[in-house]
User: Fold Lysozyme M1 from Latilactobacillus sakei.
Amino acid sequence: MYRVTVRQGWDGKETTIHSENMNSVKLLSAKITKDVDSIDSFAFNISPKSPQYNAFKYRTTFVKVTNTKLGKVLFEGRVLPTTDSMDSSGIFDKSVTCEGLTAFLHDSIQDYYALSNNDLKAFLSHMIDVHNRQVDSYKRMKLGQVTVTSPSDNVYKSIDDSKTTYDTIKEKLIDKYGGEIRVRHGSDGLYLDYMPEIATLSSQDIRLASNLLSLKRAVDPSEAYSVIKPLGARAESENETGDSEISQPRLTIEAVNNGSSVLSSQSMIQKIGYVVHAEVWDDVKVASILKSKGQAALDSQREIKEQFQVTAIDLSLLSGMTVDSFECGNYHQTINPLMGINERLRIVGQSLDICEPFNSTLSIGDKLLGQADYEALIKKQGEAIDVLKSRVAAQTAKIVTISNKLGEIGSIKEDQSTQDELIKELQERVQKLQEQTVGDQYYEGSIIDVSEFQGSINWSQVVSSGLALSVIRVQSGSSHVDNTYTANIPNAISAGANYAVYAYFAATDPSDAAVEANDFYNRTKAVVGSSKEPRFWMIDVEADSTSGTLSSSVTAYMNKLNSLGIPDSKIVIYVSNALYPSIDTSRTQIWIPSYGINDGTVANSRKPLYPYDLWQYTSVGRISGISGNVDMSTEPSARFKDNYLKK
Assistant:
């Protein structure tokens, strides 16, 4: 069903490296990852037995994945740096990561430009013209559908000359006005679309007992606020030398709000207490206008996030479709009466496993709820819980009835073999009913990582405020031992925290990396002793200190942990977007930091460029029990949750 081809150069001849035919050439593993607001990626492992093993050249080799049954291209993109590796049995393979065609927008930078009207299409057209002047002919694009519009009060837009075209579009258009972009093939080349949503409404339902195997819902009100502080443009002034001041205070609303700089919602204060949020309008210079904008934002805030995740969906057997028949970005009616769900939801992410299609998953996306929506949802969930209670009670009654029958079997004067078969059948029914009443349980709440920079931590408060996971630093290289880890680990354990440990990578070569790993292990074990073991051991790779041996050094670090009894399944790599292509990411789960504005909110953060199992979205998060800022992460993958967040 799936064919993967490779070609050298944009117009090169395509060669198959993974065939849809059963007994033909195959990749060792292959997975496509799609997200509505990130560049598509494709990662695979290929055997040295393949004639194309050494055919992958950075950025000039192109890979295409096609569903031959549907005649549909699932992915097309270029190759990033590859990694060769050997396992403990001496078997080699190559890990290849590819990025989608939208990444072409990273190959150009923008010039300074200013526009004083509301025409976003003209603004984007200028950026595409600048991009086209700098890149290869096959990377050039035409402007396609542009349907996002600018509010009338935003009349001035400018571009600096320090960022790529992709980053500029994200910052100047998507982050400010919303919307989504896509690069698509047209009959005469590539086109760039900019629309409020790249989506259509599908007629295919996702329904319990039809094609839906499991669905999880999480409601996160953590970004809701009850008090807003509106901030306008900075004052303009000059110092005595005539130079413009670097930083001036922003316009506030005291003059038109009885001397107060904030606006409050009493209904929200009753629900969540005093939670203050600052919102900036750089283009507003009149206090009365600023106040009206602040009030409108407070009244219409939709910061309560409702997330659905389809962790298992079998479409090929139950509905005649495959998981990649469902387009990322499209809407589907999703129905699960037991959870009170019957609504139109959007697919915001896909993980398509080419070699093991039944491992493919869909992420049914986040939506933001207003306060009224939130209260209605809580009521609906209460009604659904009542239904579940009734079902559990009915199942319990069945279990009791079956158990009574088991007790009566001894008095039945029947053939022994008949009795044995009946006992076996009844026991199987009991087991199935019991399994239906027990669901997976996970730690829910904040995911943080802490070190000596957080000072003394009140772990009881941290846990009681809602903690899913805390990752505690043990060392920075071998030379610096974290000043607080000997207190943090036992105190976290005593407070009942779900925890893991990490070490900052500072090795200079593979031999030095093995020493760091050994010290990391010994220091952690000396404190943990016979207490609760960490859920995983994280290697924090933020800089290349190896002078060209980063990949082999990280591998040596992992191998040393393996030799000490820590398997790959208990190791996580934290790596920056910049270093991601330089290390082997195929052995373990990946944690990537990507901040964007870095104001402590997910909404204003920028997702990582590469596939991830956990996303660190800010370094200025706040949680009860820690007096200052703390790193916070979100969007754990299904396998991350199953391995590290399950109780």
